[in-house]
């Protein structure tokens, strides 16, 4: 089954930049910045907006609610982190958001990249336990959204005795779940629950192999046809390849050693971040036009597609041909890169995927 292609963008609630480590290049978080980015993403044809969660970021649920009210069509992809919010309250928050926004919410399942940050915020559970909690909480969310009547739940971490919510979600049976973890536990949650497993950038062979393995795991739950796959990537697109590489190198050229060390150490226990560092050790590129440079200065999805419009489209098309249908992208500055992508890359992709992209 060939799924319809979808494209998402990123809302940098910790601020934007054109050069890490250069104070004059920083754009601080503000409502005006968020308005520019969300407006540019909608105009470019992006369908959803990833809203991050991290100490440096503005609060994701409030930011998402504000921006969905100030925009027309884009869906917010908001994080559900295990043990942060009581699952009954979280189910009610999401279903209320879904109803009030006309179905413009989807859920990003995140166990947390940084043990230091978790400890600072009072999260006492280790990584393995957080995935166990995530399993319970997603099961509770789905049950509350689809059960008409009291819900009883007796788990290791949560016990419910007759829980009910109002309203029920607008989207049926419920909003979609996305997950981007790189560990076996993350894959198992995706196999059981995710509508989309988002890979961070990697080699084509590794993505092909990982898709096959997760699909096999999903088959064990009768979900091999339900689970879909996507890519979480950065984009540096310019009129010429030289301009793209010049900007890419300037983006990270001034980052301090202390910032690079912070990224390495603060997120060391994340399997997905470990894989990104492993790829960066291979060299500047892991495939033609797939650049590792941003991984030095930014945790998370730092692999970037770098090139002219045809090269960027061709690189994304290779992932489409592997079986990916969802692309969660970002680039600097985020409003300007969204505009470039919409004008230059999206038309090329539509030409090659006429039956799978919205007109």
Automatic annotation (TrEMBL):
GO biological process: alkanesulfonate catabolic process
Stored InterPro entries: Luciferase-like_dom, Luciferase-like_sf, SsuD_RutA_monooxygenase
GO MF annotation: an example: alkanesulfonate monooxygenase activity
Oxidoreductase recorded as keyword: yes
Keywords, sorted A to Z: Flavoprotein, FMN, Monooxygenase, Oxidoreductase
Domain Luciferase-like: 6-325
Alphabetical list of Pfam families matching this protein: Bac_luciferase
Source species, domain of life: Bacteria
Name assigned to this protein: Alkanesulfonate monooxygenase
């Amino acid at each position: 089954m060939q799924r319809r292609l979808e494209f998402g963008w990123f809302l940098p609630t910790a601020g934007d930049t054109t050069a890490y480590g250069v104070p004059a290049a920083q754009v601080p978080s503000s409502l005006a910045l968020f308005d520019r980015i969300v407006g540019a993403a909608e105009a470019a044809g992006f369908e959803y907006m990833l809203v991050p969660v991290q100490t440096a970021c503005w609060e994701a649920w409030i930011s998402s609610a504000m921006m969905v009210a100030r925009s027309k069509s884009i869906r917010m992809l908001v994080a559900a982190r295990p043990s942060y919010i009581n699952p009954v309250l979280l189910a009610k928050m999401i279903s209320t958001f879904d109803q009030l926004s006309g179905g413009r919410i989807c859920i990003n399942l995140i166990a947390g990249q940084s043990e230091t940050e978790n400890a600072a915020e009072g999260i006492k559970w280790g990584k393995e336990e957080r995935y166990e909690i995530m399993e319970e909480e997603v099961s509770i969310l789905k049950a509350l959204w689809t059960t008409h009547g009291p819900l009883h739940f007796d788990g290791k971490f949560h016990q419910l005795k007759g829980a009910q919510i109002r309203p029920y979600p607008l989207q049926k049976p419920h909003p979609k779940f996305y997950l981007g973890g790189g560990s076996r536990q993350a894959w198992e949650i995706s196999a059981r629950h995710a509508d989309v497993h988002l890979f961070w950038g990697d080699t084509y062979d590794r993505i092909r192999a990982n898709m096959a393995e997760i699909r096999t795991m999903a088959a064990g739950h009768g979900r091999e046809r339900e689970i879909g796959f996507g890519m979480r990537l950065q984009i540096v697109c310019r009129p010429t390849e030289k301009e793209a590489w010049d900007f890419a190198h300037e983006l990270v050229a001034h980052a301090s050693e202390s910032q690079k060390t912070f990224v390495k150490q603060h997120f060391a226990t994340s399997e997905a971040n470990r894989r990104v560092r492993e790829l960066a050790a291979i060299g500047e590129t892991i495939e033609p036009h797939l650049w590792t440079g941003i991984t030095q200065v930014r945790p998370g999805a730092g692999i970037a597609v770098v090139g002219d419009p045809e090269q960027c489209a061709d690189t994304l098309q290779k992932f489409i041909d592997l079986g990916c249908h969802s692309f969660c992208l970002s680039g600097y500055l985020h409003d300007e890169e969204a505009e470039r992508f919409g004008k230059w890359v999206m038309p090329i992709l539509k030409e090659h995927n006429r039956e799978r992209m919205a007109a």
